[in-house]
């Protein structure tokens, strides 16, 4: 088996991909490669790709797959990705999946998709229950990590609010977009026999245990 491992995390919005990938990155030493972070980094650093993406977005157009693919390719070429990476938000569609397969082939890497499976209703509850402090940015959850006083931040006493992208109508659109654009990747990786399913219900600690069990033999974990 190749010493380079690219793990692709799939799942609907709210399934916990970001949370679990951060934990896995800390436990394995593999870098967390998030397309959201990549876009912010390229925009902030005014890179050539960032400026191109900005001009496209300012024109009211969607950033094409080629720009996203180039950002990921540049990121995977950095030294910290020499042993592989944990990919969160990429690939998002079949065009990007084909590009990811080419990158894995060029790096002689093992490619594996991990699907965090969660019911749509629970995804909705997880996202719409999030609250953020207007002052310090702390995020809590009305069900999983409620504040001591409703609407008040435990950390600084600021006002807690629900972000616009966490309201039910927006979340429903995001889930529908996931089924339209990204869910076809489940069949794509099934056909390649590079697919693992991890049930994502329950507390983050419970999901993390299932994930480690599913990845045993693929990922080397640091001693706890």
Comma- or semicolon-separated keywords:
224 residues, five-stranded parallel sheet, 9 helices, 16% strand
Summarize, please:
With 224 residues, the protein is of the alpha/beta class. The chain has 9 helices and 8 strands. Helix 1 packs across helix 9, helix 2 crosses helix 3 (48-58) and helix 4 runs parallel beside helix 5.
Give the overall silhouette: globular
SSE string, helix = H, strand = E? EHEHHHEHEHEEEHHEH
The percent of residues in helical segments reads 40-55%
Alpha carbon gyration radius: 18 Å
Beta-strand percentage range: 15-25%
Main sheet: strands, sense, barrel: 5 strands, parallel
* Contiguous uncertain segments of 5+ residues: none
Straight-line N-to-C gap = 25 Å
Trace the largest sheet across and list its strands. Answer: 2-3-1-4-8
Mean pLDDT, all residues: 92
Tell me the number of strands: 8
Class from helix and strand fractions: alpha/beta
Query: What oligomeric arrangement do these chains adopt?
Result: single chain
Number of helices: 9
């Amino acid at each position: 088996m190749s010493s380079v491992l690219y793990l692709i995390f799939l799942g609907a919005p709210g399934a916990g991909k970001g949370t679990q990938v951060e934990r896995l990155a800390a436990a394995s030493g593999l870098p967390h490669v998030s397309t959201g972070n990549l876009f912010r980094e390229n925009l902030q650093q005014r890179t050539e790709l960032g400026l191109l993406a900005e001009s496209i977005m300012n024109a009211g157009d969607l950033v094409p797959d080629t720009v996203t693919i180039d950002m990921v390719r540049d990121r995977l070429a950095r030294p910290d990705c020499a042993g592989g990476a944990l990919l969160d938000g990429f690939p998002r569609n079949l065009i990007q999946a084909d590009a990811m397969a080419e990158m894995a082939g060029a790096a002689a890497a093992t490619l594996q998709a991990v699907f965090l499976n969660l019911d749509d209703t629970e995804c909705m509850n997880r996202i719409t229950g999030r609250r953020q402090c207007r002052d310090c940015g702390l995020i809590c959850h009305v069900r999983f990590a409620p504040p001591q006083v409703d609407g008040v931040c435990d950390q600084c006493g600021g006002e807690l609010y629900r972000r616009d992208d966490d309201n039910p109508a927006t979340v429903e659109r995001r889930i529908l977009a996931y089924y339209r654009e990204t869910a076809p990747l489940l069949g794509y990786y099934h056909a390649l026999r590079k697919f693992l399913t991890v049930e994502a219900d329950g507390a983050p600690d419970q999901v993390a245990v299932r994930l480690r069990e599913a990845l045993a033999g693929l990922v080397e974990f640091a001693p706890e």
